[in-house]
Design goal:
The complex is a heterotrimer of chains A (95), B (95) and C (328). Chain B has one domain. In chain B, 78% of the residues lie in helices and 0% in strands. Chain B has helices spanning 9-35, 39-64, 68-88. The longest helix of chain B has 27 residues, at 9-35. The termini of chain B are far apart. Chain C folds into 2 domains: 1-81, no CATH class; 132-305 and 315-328, no CATH class. Chain C is built from 12 helices and no strands. The radius of gyration of chain C is 23 Å and the shape is globular. Chain C starts with a helix and ends with a helix. The chains are: A mainly alpha (95), B mainly alpha (95), C mainly alpha (328).
Chain lengths: 95, 95, 328
């Protein structure tokens, strides 16, 4: 049934969110933490968005959710890159 | 206004459980904002809260049947990047 | 079961907010405080969404978390690694604490009283009863730009005053040196997207959550992004145009108000037939002004050549641009 599919998608996304945040807390280094964060951002939100699209009846809102998903993917990739690049430069400057 | 959506109570309960678990993952991520030795560490917690916030808003939009929350999620996704750029584009970046 | 789950969500949110607020104020590390403050802004947006107030959630997300976040992060990013809050005398701390406590008690009493009030005419009923003649169908916009338009005019004046203060105190921060090509590639599609979203928020404010402040803040975010991503290729500012854009919001607002006064005997009393169009005109001008104000506040101060008389040693190109009122 449609609802079960949506719940499945959302809870799978939830798994990635939780593991991403635990990784953010427990991993030893900034760069490894960014790696964990990217999993939560990309896969976690994609699955949650998929579940919500299944549940949402109006097409225009479905299009909005797809745009949100694409934006978050791009934003997450760019943000991880920028933060890592910034941290690298700061470290190099201090040496 | 939305029609249909979260009409069955099993779906509602599942969505509510998902909501609480998302909030839990935000809470876990917040510890990194407290601890994180560098400002980049703290900021990665902000990124997690941003994406988690988008997920929470998407689910709230279905639960509360408020379509405007999709706009709020869209805006959050857009502005997460601007915050990252504000943090990382620094005067001290000399090539 | 459903109520229990909602209660868990609500109570966790409240406790989280309170803890964040407390730690933000009490922590000694400036960077930690700023980060927790931005996190609190994001959580507040979620709280407003939970309370079924999408207008407030939108405003909090754009202005509270977005623009304020960018402003604060720019302020602290060049601090040394551990910056401590400067020490206050214990007398001042005692005064601040007692005033805060008194304010908390007063507001708790007000909320309690409001929740247990006897039945009477609620404001929301009056708002909705007059909605058909207000020119818009979103009650929040009706309140902001029709019933209480004067307050919004004063809010615009407050924003302008704040920006004038920043402009008076400082000159613009120095340009940044390097920018990632990935960032530039992203900016090329993100800035148009931000501008379109800003226009969308402005337009949709008539019948759904949105409006001038949110649209202006998004436009400011677009301009800030542009400024940060292309530091060396940015042309000189056209200061004349900037000054016009800063005041056009208040100017349009007052002009419309005076015109309505000549027709309807009251400042800002909209003729019901024109109310929708007038509100859209005012909001458009206000969006532009707010965007200019926020961008200038972010940039830190006066662009080069603002006063018109100082800095005679600027190159001829920039002077001729400002004198001729813009290139191309």
């Amino acid at each position: 049934m449609i609802d079960t599919l949506a719940i499945l998608a959302i809870f799978s996304g939830l798994f990635f969110f939780l593991s991403g945040s635990i990784g953010l807390l427990r991993l030893p280094d900034l760069f490894t933490r960014l790696h964990a964060l990217a999993k939560a951002d990309n896969v976690g939100l994609a699955l949650v968005a998929l579940g919500v699209i299944i549940l949402e009846p109006a097409v225009i809102n479905g299009i909005k959710i797809v745009i949100i998903w694409l934006l978050v993917m791009a934003a997450s990739a760019i943000s991880s890159h920028l933060v890592a690049r910034h941290a690298l430069r700061e470290n190099r400057k201090d040496d | 206004m939305m029609s249909g959506g979260a009409s069955t109570s099993i779906l509602t309960i599942a969505l509510l459980i998902a909501l609480n678990l998302l909030l839990l993952s935000l809470l876990i991520g917040l510890f990194r904002a407290w601890l994180g030795p560098s400002v980049e560490d703290r900021f990665s917690a902000i990124l997690l809260i941003g994406t988690g916030g988008v997920a929470i808003l998407l689910i709230l939009a279905i639960l509360l049947q408020i379509t405007a929350l999709y706009d709020v999620a869209l805006v959050l996704a857009l502005l997460a990047v601007v915050g990252t750029v504000a943090l990382t584009q620094s005067e001290s970046n000399h090539d | 079961m459903i109520e229990l789950l909602w209660s868990i969500f609500d109570i966790t949110l409240v406790l989280l907010l309170l803890t964040l607020a407390w730690t933000t104020c009490s922590t000694q590390d400036v960077k930690r405080a700023v980060t927790l403050f931005i996190a609190m802004g994001l959580l507040l947006a979620i709280v407003w969404a939970r309370l079924k107030a999408p207008d407030l959630a939108l405003a909090e997300a754009v202005i509270g978390a977005g623009i304020s976040g960018a402003l604060l992060l720019s302020a602290i990013k060049d601090y040394p690694a551990t910056t401590m809050v400067s020490h206050r005398s214990s007398l001042i701390e005692g005064i601040i604490n007692s005033l805060t406590l008194a304010l908390t008690i007063l507001m708790s009493w007000a909320v309690w009283h409001g929740l247990n009030m006897s039945d009477g005419i609620r404001l929301s009923e009056q708002v909705f009863s007059q909605l058909p003649v207000s020119g818009v169908s979103n009650p929040v916009t009706a309140v902001l730009l029709n019933y209480r338009a004067y307050d919004t005019l004063l809010e615009l004046a407050v924003v302008l005053t704040a920006v004038l203060t920043v402009l008076t105190l400082n000159e613009k921060r120095a340009d940044y040196e390097s920018s990632s090509p990935l960032l530039q590639g992203m900016t090329r599609w993100l800035v148009p997207l931000l501008v379109v979203t800003s226009g969308y928020l402005l337009w949709v404010g008539a019948h759904a959550p949105g409006g001038a402040f949110q649209a202006g803040a998004m436009l400011a975010a677009a301009m800030i992004l542009l400024q940060l991503a292309y530091p060396s290729r940015r042309p000189e500012f056209n200061n004349y145009l900037l000054k016009i854009l800063l005041v056009i919001g208040i100017f349009t607002f007052v002009l419309v108000g005076l015109w309505m006064m000549s027709l309807n005997d009251d400042f800002l009393a909209f003729t019901p037939a024109w109310a929708g169009t007038l509100i859209l005109i005012i909001e458009t001008a206000a969006t532009v002004s707010i965007a200019t104000a926020l961008t200038l506040a972010y940039l830190g101060g006066r662009p080069r050549g603002w006063e018109g008389t100082g800095r005679e040693d600027t190159n001829r190109t920039s002077r001729s641009i400002t004198e001729n009122g813009g290139a191309g």
